[in-house]
Amino acid sequence: MRTDAIFRLFSMTKPITSVALLTLYEQGKFQLTDPLERYLPAFKDVGVYTGTDASGRMTVKPPARKITLQDVFRHTAGFAYGGYFEDTPVDRAYRDAGIVYARLDSLDELIRKLSGMPLLYEPGERWVYSFAHDVQAYLVEYFSGMRFDEYCRRYIFQPLGMKDTVFGIPRDLADRYPTGYVADGSGGLKAVSAEDDPYRRLEQHPFGGISVASTADDYLRFSQMLLNGGELNGVRILGRKTVELMVSDNLPPATASWAPGMRYGLGVSVVADPAQAGNLGSQGQFGWPGVASTWFAADPKEELVMLLFTQYTPRDVRFDDEFQTLVYQALVNR
């Protein structure tokens, strides 16, 4: 493992996408309570899945309320994730329509296809992990007039000095990527070949839910910026109050949280109760993982950033939990 290794971050792309869109929120481009259809009219007539008819076609009804941009930030919009985590009829419809990263060529294509799908549930009623961050990335392009990846480079990576943070696997940096591994089905590991690496196409097809690759040093800069309230080394990316809102519980009170003791902010998880979460930690700790067993968390109470980077799929949750326990048990002085 090289000290300057570049890791496939997968879903640790998502907090970066949310920060990018929040910089445009600070410019007054939108309000969180705005309906999504105000900016993306294709979602105006989207319906909520109610079942299937005698011929096997999905039936829908009008939603009780409109999808808001806050819903898109916090995974309460009604979108699904195409079978990555669930296998509902809506997820299967996504796959049939080609709404999976390996088959999508652009954010434009994703929005066009996604807007033709029924919602899995009423907006605001559930938290379901989804393509919502890819909708955010499209909104970054809509409000800025720039490509999503270029916006991130210009307004996040370059100002923070994240010189080794890229999209996909640029050819001139490929030798700095650690080998990825997957379970082989018999308790061992299998190396992922270059031909099967899902990151190889993402340089040319960047998305908001996955596609960023970075070093531990670079992602520490991004994490420390958030821990500092939006600033690092004299460079401000977000205002202090924006970060406070981002890392607060944004889920509607009646919405079930995604895990015991955990809630969700605007692109990051938020620890509401460490005891219910079942591990050492602090209320207000925030962060997010990636499917290849990468993870970051920031703890404002302890002024602490934790980073765990490896390249094993699927994510080893116990590995993350043990790492967190070891970090917190080591704290003896304030």
Q: Largest sheet at a glance?
A: 5 strands, antiparallel
Q: Level of helix content?
A: 25-40%
Gyration radius over CA: 19 Å
Task: Let me know the average pLDDT.
Answer: 96
Number of strands: 15
Describe the protein's topology.
Elements: E1 7-8, H1 13-26, E2 48-52, E3 58-61, H2 69-74, H3 89-96, H4 107-114, H5 132-144, H6 148-160, E4 166-167, E5 181-183, E6 189-191, E7 212-214, H7 216-227, E8 231-232, E9 235-236, H8 240-246, E10 262-264, E11 269-271, H9 274-277, E12 286-290, E13 294-299, E14 304-308, E15 312-313, H10 317-329
Parallel strand pairs: 5-15
Antiparallel strand pairs: 1-7, 2-3, 4-7, 5-6, 8-9, 10-11, 11-12, 12-13, 13-14
Helix pairs in contact: 1-5, 1-6, 4-5
Identify the notable features of this structure and list them briefly.
29% helix, 15 strands, five-stranded antiparallel beta sheet, 10 helices, 15% strand, 334 residues, alpha+beta
Describe this structure in words.
There is one protein chain. The protein is α+β, with helices and mostly antiparallel strands and 334 residues long. It has 10 helices and 15 strands. The strands form 5 sheets. It has a 5-stranded antiparallel beta sheet with strand order 10-11-12-13-14, with helices on both faces.
